[in-house]
Structures are given as structure tokens and as C-alpha cells.
Amino acid sequence: MPRPAYRSRSLRRVKVKTPGGRTVVHYEKRAKGVPKCAVTGQPLGGMNSKVYRFGISTRAPSRPYGGVVSHKVLARAIRYAVRR
Q1: Phi/psi of residue 73, each to 5°?
Q2: Phi, psi for 83 (deg, rounded to 5)
Q3: pTM exceeds 0.85, yes or no
Q4: pLDDT tens digits for 44-81?
Q5: How many domains does the chain fold into?
Q6: Beta bridge partners of 13
Q7: What SS3 class is residue 4?
Q8: For 14, how many CA atoms within 13 A lie in the half-sphere containing its CB?
Q9: How far apart are the C-alpha atoms of 14 and 27, rounded to whole Å?
């Protein structure tokens, strides 16, 4: 049985063949998903998702709700707020 830290499903199990011919299980972190819009669920453009060592403020666009909602949703919300 693996030790308690490796029993979590947040780690991905990968079967690896060793040079000696045995098959062992390696535990890896799961791949991160693409940032998505909170309203529509579509992938966000403008997010620099390749650079994870920087914070969200560096990666996200510098507009209001940048990195949270898509530009189309934001434009629609601004139009709605102005017209009311």
C-alpha cells in the first residue's frame, strides 16, 4: 500500500518500466487546465498560461475582470450597465 501522501487522487498514477524489467508506479501532479470564462466556459484569450511561475496579476489582461470573464461577456456587461 502506498504511503498516505500518495493515496490522494490529486496525483496522477503513471506506470513506468524500470531498466530491470519491473513495472512501478510513479505519482505526478495532474496537468493544469486552460483558464476558462466564468460565465460562458470558453477558453480565455490573452492569458499567458505557459508562464505559471508568475502570479495571476502578471498573466491576466489588465482590464476589469481580466482573467475571469471573456472580453465578449465584459463588453456585454458594460453595455448593459451604461444603458440602464
Answers
A1: -65, -40
A2: -75, -15
A3: no
A4: 877 766 666 667 777 778 888 888 899 999 999 999 99
A5: 2
A6: 27
A7: helix
A8: 11
A9: 6
- Amino acid at position 22, single letter: R
Contact residues for 12 (Cβ-Cβ < 8 A; gap 6+) = 27, 28, 29, 30
Separation CA 45–CA 61 (nearest Å): 9
Residues 50 and 62 in one domain: yes
Do 55 and 15 fall into the same domain?
A: no
DSSP string across the chain: ---GGGS-TTEEEEEEE-TTS-EEEEEEEPPPPPPB-TTT-PBPTT--TT-TTS-HHHHS-SSTTTTTS-HHHHHHHHHHHHH-
Distance CA 47, CA 33 (A): 12
**Domain boundaries, position 14:** 1-31
CA distance 70 to 47: 10
